[in-house]
Amino acid sequence: MKFEISGEKGYREKQKYFYSSHQKTYEGKQIAHERSENTEFAVENEIISVSKDPRYIEVKQKTIEKSGPADLEQMAFPELNETLAFRYNPWGDVLKAGDKPPFSIFFVSPVPLPQRPIQVGDTWEYKGSWIDYNQGIEMNVNLIGVLRETISCYDNEICLNLEYSGNVELPEKLQKAAKFKGKVLAKFILRPKNFSVLRSEIYNTEYLARDDFTMDIKSCIVSKIASSKELLTCTP
């Protein structure tokens, strides 16, 4: 079966998020610095445009609540009280992200779908890249997606249990100078209609070594539709 994103103009939803990270910095074998931080925030999504030729939906995203220090732009979200209009094609590719440049992290698909029919157990590949605006370094992500199951939802609709896993890498010439390893595991319950993520959990690990300096970062972010009363939390 072929799964594609569609949308209803005027559809609105509120998504709640919880983000947690733990960072350790070593000089030699000694811990030089250790830090943990948590951030909660909420995003309001509204479909403001639907096009049939070419096919896309445009979603206005606004961060309406935030408690904590995390840099939301590093996770491809607008900062508190900021708004971005995202344009997505039927497979979740980002065609436009407000005034953000196309080499930014905002153009990495949040939930990429294959353009071919799939069934439970099928896998597909997704590759994305962006330039980190703090370091000015190109980052590359290589993921394998899998359809874990289909779920009956919203009367006659089908929601998807999706899982993605893979690596984040530096360009080869930089990888030689700084030993970097990044891993991603992401799980989503997706309603293709309105590109609505009912719940999600994403786990990241990053390891960077150069000379006697080593940095180890673990983070996680979970989300749910705000109508759910479930408490949000995760442990990196």
Q: Which labels suit this protein?
A:
mainly beta
Secondary structure layout:
Blueprint: E1 12-27, E2 30-52, E3 55-67, E4 83-88, E5 94-97, E6 123-131, E7 138-153, E8 157-169, H1 172-177, E9 179-191, E10 196-210, E11 213-225
Antiparallel strand pairs: 1-2, 1-11, 2-3, 3-4, 4-5, 6-7, 7-8, 8-9, 9-10, 10-11
Helix content: under 10%
Strand order of the largest sheet: 5-4-3-2-1-11-10-9-8-7-6
Summing up helix and strand content along with how strands pair, one would put the structural category as mainly beta
Task: Sum up the overall morphology in one term.
Answer: globular
Number of helices: 1
Order of helices and strands: EEEEEEEEHEEE
Give the overall average pLDDT: 94
* Main beta sheet: 11 strands, antiparallel
Task: State Rg.
Answer: 18 Å
How many angstroms separate the termini? 35 Å
Oligomer: single chain
Strand content: over 45%
